[in-house]
Specification:
It is built from eight helices and no strands. By secondary structure, it is mainly alpha-helical. It has one domain. The longest helix has 34 residues. It is elongated, with a radius of gyration of 19 Å. The protein starts with a helix and ends in a 9-residue tail after the last helix.
């Protein structure tokens, strides 16, 4: 399986995704730094941050923006690795190998999952670190509500990253069913609205049970994306 994963990274030119992930991390870090320390989030009349309910802390802003960005990023990777491979018929060559189709699909999904999880986790660590360092020299518009010396901080960071990256399997399932790369990415935006948006004071974002349910649902969709792959015709 590890050889197949490495093959997928090589075949899909993982270097360009590393470059894109670094650029995305840099943009997010600069934007969040500007929100916290340069006053771009402040109400022009009141001079205080103008935020949605539940978004008054630094960690909430970081989690929201990184989750949104990497859910779309991961879904786009899955679209490129798998859905596009069906559309341009390169999957025909992959399925001609003396390897089970299901194993090939799983290796493709894992190649994306491992890369995106690592990229998201590192991005969060860099941003959290930059915000903490900035607070030593400037006053943040948002309370710095996290402790990077606490083991619980890293446990929570990892769990949230797992949930977000795994959720992209829902987008993959929709893309495969509709035979469309665009549908994969559009579904990721719909998932953002479902999981991150506020309706008044109501939001799923801070519900402790919701991430567990969502992860289970995502894994079910991942299963059905590979289910009976040996018997299905190519697109």
């Amino acid at each position: 399986m590890l050889k197949l994963i490495k093959l997928e990274w090589k075949k899909n030119h993982i270097g360009k995704y590393i470059r894109n992930a670094v650029l995305l991390a840099g943009i997010l870090c600069l934007f969040l730094f500007a929100l916290a320390y340069l006053g771009i989030a402040n109400d022009p009349e009141l001079g205080v941050p103008d935020t949605a309910p539940g978004m008054g802390n630094m960690s909430s802003s970081i989690e929201l923006l990184t989750s949104m960005s990497f859910l779309v990023f991961t879904s786009a990777m899955l679209s490129s690795f798998i859905v596009s491979a069906y559309q341009n018929k390169t999957m025909n060559l992959m399925f001609s190998y003396p390897i089970k189709r299901q194993k090939i699909l799983i290796s493709q999904m894992l190649a994306v999952w491992i890369f995106s999880f690592g990229a998201l986790t590192l991005t969060k660590l860099v941003i959290y670190g930059c915000m903490r360092i900035g607070s030593r020299y400037m006053v943040s518009a948002f309370p710095i509500d996290y402790d990077m010396a606490s083991p619980g901080f890293y446990m929570q960071l990892i769990v949230k990253s797992v949930v977000i990256v795994t959720m992209s399997f829902i987008s993959l399932f929709v893309g495969l069913k509709m035979r469309s790369s665009k549908a994969t990415v559009i579904t990721s935006f719909l998932l953002i609205f479902l999981t991150q948006a506020n309706i008044g004071d109501l939001t799923m974002r801070n519900n402790a049970v919701f991430p567990v349910i969502l992860t289970v649902i995502s894994l079910v969709f991942a299963f059905f994306s590979t289910y009976r792959a040996e018997m299905k015709d190519l697109m």
